[in-house]
Sequence to fold (555 residues):
Amino acid sequence: MPDLKVYGAPWCPDCKRSKKFLAEHRIPMEWIDIDQDHDGLRVVEKLQAGGRSIPTIVFPDGSHLIEPSDDELARKLGLTLEASRQFYELVIVGGGPAGLAAALYAAREGISVVIVEKSALGGQAGATKRIENYPGFPEGIDGADLAERFIAQAKRYQVELVSAVEVTSIEPEMGNVVVKLGNGQELCAHAALIATGSRYRQLGVPGESSLTGAGVHYCATCDGPFYRGAEEILVIGGGNSALEEALFLTQFAKKIRIVSHGSELRASGLVQADVRRHPQIEIMLDTEIVAFSGTKKLEEVVARQRVTGEEQRWHPAAAFVFVGLDPNTAFLREGVHLDQRGFVTTDASFRTSLPGVFAAGDVRAGATKQLGAAVGEGIAALLQIRAQLQQQRLTVSLDEGGAPDVTPVTSATANLSSSTGPPTRPDPPGRVARLAVRGWIALAAAWAAAAVALAASAALGIATGLVFHLHPVAIAIGSAWLYRRLEEARPCPTRSVAFLVGLGALLSASDEALRPRGLADAPWLAAAIGLAGLAGASWVLLRADPRSLLQPRAR
Ligand SMILES: Cc1cc2nc3c(=O)[nH]c(=O)nc-3n(C[C@H](O)[C@H](O)[C@H](O)COP(=O)(O)OP(=O)(O)OC[C@H]3O[C@@H](n4cnc5c(N)ncnc54)[C@H](O)[C@@H]3O)c2cc1C
Fold:
């Protein structure tokens, strides 16, 4: 199949945005610079009846989009941009290795789960050229291939995957968590897993992005072995990780040149001492990198001495940049405790400071920033989440006076060890659903009591006016309407139930307060109105089966 074609120009910011979006989603494309390629320009003009708007993107089926937003592009590429439901047992934020591994285990456990990924599924692994140290691939594996394998396995277990949608906040709400998405959706869940990773801080100099993975690297453990036998490797940075990685790289290259823009190194004294006495390492302070250049791989590094302004040109086999890591935690405004560098702190069970919220992978304070470790953390965190969900189910069973229902524990354990095919997803009898059932029972009881009181008052001949008798009916219909509105606007059924139960209580109180005493009334009218009220309440109850909240919504 021919690749998708992007017609644009290097000066066009929207072209860069679209190219970045497609590259992130690993969509093969052909770039046609219409400033250089006259045939390309003619194609654009023909498609736009003489117009020259760019980017113009032509898809393999012949259709095209002109100046599309990322959202339009995503829709055209068939990405899922919305969660199908409002309630899940678990929402996973971030579709990198940690998130995908956790989701796979969750799906196999029968836990209702969705992954929300702000960019492309696969995370940093998907953007890595070659991974040599992930167990099970003795020849190494292309990062994109590995990411596709993670995704395919998650799909096989019917994990719901939402991509190109950012999570903007996670907030606690009546024992649940509400996860807000950039598309306006609010997802309610028993638990959330933060697996948003981190990104290596870049220098931001020309040539850096285009040569990343082709001579410019950010992980010595991952990419150092590619340069075994090299004459020289450059290490940029003056902190602990830069110096430790420099020591590690001495096994591959004859010379390691450490370049730091500060006038002294920031690493601990011990590491500095090791580096200073190492015969293969040279240190250059007060030196900043100005540019990387090369066509297919790194060929030259331009640096400037900050004191003298003198420019130098080096030709190392590779440059490793260690100027820090930035965690993807900007969306966690409050509630979740972060360390000084912004990484999420957890206890040994991967729990954060916010109840029901866990964290795993590179985003976690103390994580090792390795792929295998991220996968392991995702799985370990999921097992802790499973324990919490089971605990909640168990608590509700006991609350209800029944025998503890341990079936899910057993089946979950069996699932872990033996199931091989995609599970048929059970309807998860979650805690919220049970609370909802209780709420409905309480409401029904309130209505029944109101109807009995009305019937009794009719039988006794204690009259009330027509308006008084009609008000329960009005409230029944109003409750139904309000319930539907609440359910649409706010996904947490607990809130709706709490509201309706409150309304029921209000009705009982108003019934007493409004009751005009001593007036004669026709008993048959009171009885008829009481029955109508009961029918209205039944209608509310039948229409709003709480389990429907746990089923996918038709769109
Ligand atoms: C160039 C490079 C090469 C590497 N090579 C190796 C290697 O050879 N071997 C190795 O072991 N490790 C390697 N690593 C490290 C490895 O890729 C990471 O340790 C691993 O990917 C971490 O997984 P993660 O799921 O924790 O985070 P990530 O992979 O970072 O995934 C996090 C995901 O969360 C998403 N996200 C962030 N914020 C939000 C939000 N608000 N809403 C929704 N989604 C969000 C991100 O878009 C991302 O997709 C390399 C890393 C890089 C950058």
In short: The first helix runs from residue 13 to 24. Residues 93-99, 116-119, 123-125, 128, 131-133, 166-167, 195-197, 200, 213, 218-219, 222, 328, 331, 361-362, 369-372, 374 surround flavin-adenine dinucleotide (CB under 6 Å). The chain has four domains: 5-76, 87-199+327-391, 208-323, 429-549. The first strand starts at residue 4 and ends at 8.
